[in-house]
Amino acid sequence: MEKIIVRGGRQLKGTVKVDGAKNAVLPVIAASIIASEGKSVIHEVPALADVFTIKEVLTNMNADVRYANNTVTVDASKPLTTEAPFEYVRKMRASVLVLGPLLARYGHAKVAMPGGCAIGSRPIDLHLKGFEAMGADVHVGNGYVEVSAKGRLKGAKVYLDVPSVGATENIMMAAALAEGRTIIENGAKEPEIVDLANFLNKMGAKIVGAGTETIKIDGVDQLHGVEHTIIADRIEAGTFMVASAITKGNVLIKGAEVEHMRSLVSKMEEMGVIIEEEEDGIRVIGPDKLKATDIKTLPHPGFPTDMQSQMMALMLNAEGTSVITETVFENRFMHVEEFRRMNAKLKIEGRSVIVEGPVELQGAEVAATDLRAGAALILAGLNADGYTRVTELKHIDRGYVNLTEKLASLGADIERVDDDKIVIDLAKRRSEIS
Ligand SMILES: CC(=O)N[C@H]1[C@@H](OP(=O)(O)OP(=O)(O)OC[C@H]2O[C@@H](n3ccc(=O)[nH]c3=O)[C@H](O)[C@@H]2O)O[C@H](CO)[C@@H](O)[C@@H]1O
Ligand SMILES: C=C(OP(=O)(O)O)C(=O)O
After folding, report:
1. Which of 207, 270, 385, 417 has the greatest number of C-beta atoms within 10 Å?
2. How confident is the model at residue 421 (pLDDT cuts 50, 70, 90)?
3. How close is the Cα of 198 to the center of ligand 1, in Å?
4. What structural domains does the chain harbor?
5. Can you tell me the distance from the alpha carbon of 80 to that of 51, in angstroms, rounded to the nearest whole number?
6. pTM for the full model?
7. In 3D, which of 80, 174, 85 has the Cα closest to residue 136?
8. Average pLDDT in the 71-99 region?
9. Secondary structure element (H or E) that encloses residue 426, with its range
10. Which positions are catalytic?
């Protein structure tokens, strides 16, 4: 079995570079199939398992997708098939992001229903509500959702009951080729939405307001391939910020954008962490003593749910009682049980976790229950007594490129081993593209 083994106690020092954002690259690659002419060339593409999955989804639809040296080239000018089977959606929920582009270009898309996952039920009703408002018929049956439209989609006003990232992206992509104006109200404001809108606008779309709650899209007749560079991953950056803080380290995180992480920076500063903005990134210096604080996860610009478990690792090292309230996903506390194996004092009360700190964390055998939980367990292991062995690495590989190597380069005592000495497929694929 593959595992990451961490021995706690090393102070992290040095410089680490953040890769391109998973949550930006997936919608951008999905959007590239809207272009009926020209190639899209996408730079700073991280070599993540999810990127290989979206590449397979598009290739299976007959798009020509190449991946080399962190650049993906997509030529979708040949006719595409309009179906994404369960095998892809099962691996990665973000496969549903092909619904909008296919519906816009072909008036038809059929994708396996994503179902729930370890962090919650994660329905796609708001994506479908948007498509229906634009005149599409939606049919759900036999584990698939099929959307179809007679002729072009029609621009419409769509109010999202919650500012869903995926729904905002899917509706924005569908609306880019619709007839007339679409207005998304209560849309998601994440930096990844802005990156997608910038990509679509370069392709010829007319989108204004991305990054605010009201997004206006004037549909155009056709979109073309373009060149684009993906923004830095704010969640990977945040994970390294916690790694530095938890080890009383001093790390420069290159590429990190303070503008994308205001809530995290503020909360870490409240805990006593020193954060300095430098020309090419953020320097994070861990204090001798961390102070307790409270966080509540919220849509951007609120505190990101994707940093909740990593912050829990940090709070375990802080003096006093911290409270974490998760409002975005209904079941994102699976890591609590794993932290308890490391001697954490945690109490779940409804949608909140009470964290008593500081505790002497002990190395233990733990499992990554989702990708951020996996990263959080590694972070806890950096400051635990003895060896922490983290399994279920497939989750971590969905969202982090070379996490072990990057932490080791900062001085962490960490290695990835495979008990069964099986050649790691992902590592092989990464070396093929580098
Ligand atoms: C690939 C990607 O970008 N993933 C991110 C994206 O996921 P994703 O786009 O799936 O997350 P959403 O913003 O859609 O989900 C937020 C909440 O809205 C609910 N909801 C969503 C859609 C819908 O149709 N109906 C509905 O009720 C969800 O169940 C959840 O409780 O945003 C999440 C919230 O910041 C992040 O944790 C994920 O890392
Ligand atoms: C929940 C996450 O991603 P996804 O939506 O791809 O599952 C995440 O990145 O933490």
Report:
1. 207
2. low
3. 21
4. 2-19+234-433 (3.65.10.10), 22-229 (3.65.10.10)
5. 19
6. 0.96
7. 174
8. 94
9. helix 425-433
10. 117
